[in-house]
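User: I'm putting together a small comparison set for a docking exercise, and I want a reference complex before I start. The sequence is below, and the ligand is zinc ion. Could you produce the 3D structure with the ligand included, as structure tokens?
Assistant: Of course. I'll restate your input first, then give the structure tokens for the complex.
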Amino acid sequence: MSISFNAQRLLIVPDAEESNSSRLRVSTIAEPVVCSFCFGTGMEVVPVKGARRCRCRTHDARKKLLEAARIPRRYEECSLVNYQPANNNGSQLQAFNYAYRLGRDYPSVDRGLLFMGTCGVGKTHLATAILRGLIDKGVRCLFFEFGALLKEIQDSYNSISQTSALKVLAPVYEAEVLVLDELGASKPTDWVRDTMMQIIGTRYNNRRLTVFTTNYLDARRHSADEILEDRIGVRLRSRLYEMCKTVIIEGEDNRRRFDGV
Ligand SMILES: [Zn+2]
């Protein structure tokens, strides 16, 4: 799917620009990425008898997928329906639009999203809302705050812990759609950069969709500002351009008045 950025169009619009070639590319993915009983339609065929609501849409199946996704409690009620862009904030409407289209078009989507913006503009709300929508379609999703993931991997090297790095990473590699929240928040040591590159590179090679959020921007507003590239390295930033559409969200910090930050 190709997504065009057009600041004047803020409504949800059909993908008129989607080319046949990009659809073909998507269809070459070998593994099924949606429910194999209903192919994401929600209805499964019962031979001779007809069709019925698919087993993946049952309450239990959805509950299991939701639990496995590990969406933090703070964001568990976040959906596209209760996402409220600030008045006259075109970037927030635009971001909503991208989130909506990804959920609607999946699995015919070949790039994830990179939500970029300062604290409290709704990046994680949109990212978790995408997961909820996909879980309703029977898609296996996972949420990880990037720093927490790195810590779990580090802890797994500790001989007392019973987990191995591979055990931590397997679900991260295998989730059909992964949210990595707060990219660039960890102090960028060599180990952090290598590990990020390995995780993101593996998902890229396996053509798995990833949605990122980051508080760091690409443009330096002041000479002392750190930008995303400073935090994650040139190579990884460049890989993200291939994997994701960058969506910049601007606005006031929604949480400021509650958190007293
Ligand atoms: Zn199904």
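The chain has a mean pLDDT of 85. The radius of gyration is 19 Å.
User: Thanks, that's exactly what I needed.
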